[in-house]
Inverse folding.
């Protein structure tokens, strides 16, 4: 019969806040809005470990993901956070803990129209959704990372020639589990804060409109981050909001950053 | 005459916590223990921005790094944190702020002896040193990331055959600026917590000793993290300690993690 | 009317071998074996540029991906290479070239059974599929990257204690477009070459079998690479085969590598 | 007495082209132009393995690096390639091979003047130097990767507003070992091919000159790659030249690439 080494007393009696698995990739289905979507996210699952136990039972965390994910009714999960709550409920039945955190990182593809030619274009963004359960209270943290641009207001004013560059804007929203937060709406908040949104498919007439918009709308990283914060505060009332923009400067080898919260 | 667009009022009146530059790589010299060392770290410098200013003057942050780093007396800085305090003092003279944070990430090479053949071996670790100044009070956060291994006590007990894998241990120490903390001592705390320390140069007699030590000393990631916490608490009294171990499992595609603080 | 700057004569009259787009992520469907699968790959598309043209029309490459991918019959593509040939045919109708290369990198999830408990487990691997068309002849290069392990025969023989570590095995198969090559079979060739295959989900009885297998079956990276080559030569006759294994040593900070072709 | 498992016959009798170590980081000194420089490169060392031997003796490769690097006269190596030839000579005395390849990747800091304010500025670039010895003939491959920018000639012509972005230019030069090739000259070839070189330290008067130069000098990635090829062909006569530029588009989420050789 197998021994449960994890249940032994540890040499050093310290509580550990987060013990678990990271970078586990598996197939996930969601049934958002009645449509079935598939993803291959990277999962993290952490629980706390009391000071009198040597280890956690890692395989029970993996099993909890498997059981929540790999059943034919899996696409019943409308959102990532619903799936993650189910994983937490599976863990609940298998392993004691005081606090649990389940997170996933994946790519989300959304459809947009190009600004002038009005063609359909698929835009891909990195998103992350974490659900935390502590003292039986569920909260969640959603994050999107969106590519756009900045055009320097300082060089525009001094030379009429803004330097322009790719920038990456991030928005994080933290709130109670039950509050409905749409990742697509979060992406919109970031997209609208750049000098111009960008598109995967761009015809010459779209390109002309985008560059004209960039030139009419110069932005520092500070402006982009404040624009994200302002839009997110209005749209996601009662949530904790964090925003960050990193600009891959075209006149420097280093990047510039602006970060804030509201 | 050039206009200072940064001084204008922003459209959105939000304070920003961290605005600045990231991933700036430059040459640095330190004069630790009377010897001159050279590094090419990546720097981050962030200050806060009040809600009534549109932007910070990024070039003043770069100049502050240049002036602290590029003078012939640069190797007068015995430690990274001394250099960073000088950068902060340069910023102080050029740009208003309420809070500033200067960080660097680099590779530190330390000399060790192989365990049996007693040959000199150079071991390279990732380190990071951040200095924060808020309300004129200086604090610092030092971090080391050290490669080692775990050998599973559970599979050892059940099959006499532990699965073994590379693991990465991290130790972070936060304290007042003036407290002397040696990165090399921090590395020792992590090295000693693994099933065995590892070495770049290993002769057969060393290899035999290392693998025997691994087998006699099986460790979960939880054990390694607790070992780091225990050693660091004793050595760095009065500091905030955080430790984390990630094990690149040899029987799984995902990693396992244990994280704690003391 | 818009000008076609790309058609101008360049200042430097050099032919360029590969001009195009990289890291374009979009949604893709395949209809492999009658089932519909979804992926979000990263695409690369390159064509050559003659010495008398200043540039290529980048947007036509993006459009070619969009048109092949974003139509309701998209899941008609049974394989990635069929989809890529359709992209090439779209480019053919929009842009002159002598040579074209379309590649995608994505994560492939395959179902396996755990070795003892016989539970279903989902295993995720990185794969890449490139289709090249030159002088109207289509060829393809398929690549899989699979996580496994090595157990050192040298330390096993000298101490009875092999050091064990995660290893990553890669197999690349190059052949005519029409030859049927199954990515799943390629994954099997790599999986079988390790000391033991690994699994995402592992119960204690599986873990026992896996570690016993590792101990009975010590392998250098050289053994793994040769095992992949041997299996692939037998299974994919008439193809060019390349294999590479990287072992994340548990007794060193560096990695070891073995690479060969057949 | 220890057994030499590596000398056994392998199960699969395949020759392997490249067997060795990768990502080994250690301290290196060079004595270029009479000054002592220090680096912490990542090393790769590969030799071939005949079909009748099971493995190579990995520790002899590590020892060869140690012996060439860790002696007091180390800064006698004027260049990276001299150091690497010494490593090869060490391997020569310890391990049989038909072909050997020693490579290192590191960051090189060079001093420049800002274009208008004429301040000293330190610029950091990624470089790689490989030495290959086959049939007793030594050759080398040097590579630099330099950050700059592109400004789109197409959008400039159609809207008077070029979109601008960071671009990374790469130059690779392959030649006989004895040919003197200066990494600094290679960096100059790439720097000069962008719409404008970029600088770490930039005062407002420099920024004005840089952005004006970018606007007067729009470049596609194709133009940058051809400019690198043209300059390198003239400066490094008789060498094989490869160039590649990747542009991190400010109006797209993907990158664009141009690659050529001469």
């Amino acid at each position: 019969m197998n021994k449960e080494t994890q249940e032994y007393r540890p040499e050093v009696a310290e509580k550990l806040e987060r013990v678990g698995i990271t970078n586990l990739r598996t197939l996930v289905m969601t049934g958002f809005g009645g449509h079935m979507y598939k993803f291959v996210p990277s999962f993290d699952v952490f629980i706390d470990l009391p000071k009198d136990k040597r280890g956690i039972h890692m395989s029970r965390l993996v099993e909890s993901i498997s059981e929540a994910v790999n059943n034919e009714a899996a696409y019943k999960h409308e959102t990532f956070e619903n799936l993650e709550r189910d994983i937490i409920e599976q863990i609940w039945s298998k392993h004691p803990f005081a606090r649990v955190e389940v997170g996933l990182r994946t790519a989300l593809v959304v459809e947009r129209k190009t600004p002038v030619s009005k063609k359909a274009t698929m835009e891909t963004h990195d998103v992350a959704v974490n659900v935390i359960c502590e003292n039986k209270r569920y909260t969640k943290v959603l994050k999107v990372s969106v590519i756009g641009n900045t055009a320097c207001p300082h060089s525009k004013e001094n030379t009429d020639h803004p330097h322009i560059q790719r920038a990456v804007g991030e928005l994080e929203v933290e709130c109670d589990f039950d509050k409905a937060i749409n990742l697509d709406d979060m992406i919109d908040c970031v997209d609208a804060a750049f000098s111009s949104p960008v598109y995967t498919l761009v015809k010459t007439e779209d390109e002309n409109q985008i560059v004209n918009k960039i030139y009419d709308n110069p932005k520092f990283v500070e402006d982009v981050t404040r624009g994200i914060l302002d839009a997110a505060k209005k749209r996601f009332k009662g949530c904790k909001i964090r925003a960050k923009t990193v600009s891959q400067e075209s006149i420097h080898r280093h990047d510039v950053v602006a970060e804030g919260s509201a």
Observations:
- Chain D has a mean pLDDT of 94.
- Chain D has two domains: 1-97, 112-262.
- Chain D touches chain C through 52 residues (CB under 8 Å).
